[in-house]
Specification:
5 strands, binds zinc ion, Zincin-like, 13 helices, alpha/beta
Length: 289
């Protein structure tokens, strides 16, 4: 359920992604992938080391994979369709989103790495939204998730897909991940202390986060990576509880456009950044202790 990888993009991965990008653009909302589009995928992605692509589709999603992955593709198809609808429901006031997602299911972690041109740690990553807005699944991790876990991961990633129209290089990581987890858990009946278990353990041991998590805190190498996501989730939810979902979207839009954080917080929440952090720490403590 992790952040887009923004590293340099080389080798044939670039070509594969470019082709898939063109493909996803050819699927407006309400259109289901047909044999013609499937043939385009097969022909354009034919390489000696890549098995032929197969696909499953609904009105909301196109799932691409290989023979042998049918079971996993089926497990993704309807939860991902539900996730597109859930994200569309949240995002309906924020402008046009085509309410369609393309999901790529590599057969192995090696193929995943090649697709993403990624050689970093992926052992705990269930899925990634790539810079072109496709959700790429890590089959070995995703396959171990419970149905609820799969739903959360897909909704989180598809929120990143929908947010791409606003996202920029200056979007704070805590805000991007917080928004994605806010939407992923928006209808959840699970208790906060279960969702944010690692952070709750720290809070009950008397340790509160001092600052909003920074970009480096979300890296897989960080032993407190889970807590960084949980801190971000509760920061986004605090914004919603104080000022509403529209305010969360406006904060996202303004910060992604480069507006100073103090200016945004004053306008939307009546708080300085320092005041926001103080309220958020209280909120974390109040909900997790
Ligand atoms: Zn994410």
């Amino acid at each position: 359920m992790r952040r887009p990888l923004l590293g340099s993009r080389v080798r044939w991965g670039l070509m594969v992604l470019a082709v898939l990008s063109g493909l996803s653009l050819s699927f407006p909302a309400g259109q289901v992938a047909g044999p013609q589009q499937a043939r385009v995928v097969t022909e354009d992605l034919r390489r000696p080391e890549v098995p032929p692509w197969i696909h499953r589709a609904t009105r909301q999603v196109l799932v691409l994979g290989h023979a042998g992955s049918e079971s996993l593709m089926e497990k993704i198809l309807w939860p991902a369709s539900d996730a597109v609808l859930a994200v569309g429901d949240f995002w309906s006031t924020a402008g046009a989103w085509q309410q369609h997602a393309t999901i790529v299911v590599p057969s192995t972690e090696d193929e995943l790495r090649a697709l993403l041109a990624e050689d970093g740690e992926l052992g705990r990553t269930a899925a990634v939204t790539d810079p072109e807005g496709r959700v790429v699944i890590n089959p070995e991790v995703f396959g171990t998730l419970s149905p609820r876990g799969r739903q959360v991961v897909l909704t989180h990633e598809i929120t990143h897909v929908a947010a791409r129209q606003l996202t920029s290089v200056v979007t704070p990581f805590w805000l991007g991940e917080g928004l994605a987890d806010y939407v992923a858990y928006r209808r959840s009946a699970v208790r906060d202390r279960s969702i944010a278990k690692e952070l709750a353990d720290e809070v009950r041991a008397g340790r509160l986060p001092a600052q909003l998590p920074a970009r480096r805190d979300f890296r897989a190498e960080n032993p407190r990576q889970a807590q960084a996501y949980q801190e971000a989730w509760l920061a986004a939810r605090f914004i919603v509880e104080r000022a509403g979902e529209d305010a969360l979207i406006r904060v996202y839009r303004k910060m992604s456009a480069g507006t100073d954080i103090n200016v945004v917080f004053r306008a939307e929440l009546g708080l300085t950044e320092q005041g926001f952090v103080a309220h958020w720490r209280e909120y974390v403590e109040g909900h997790l202790r």
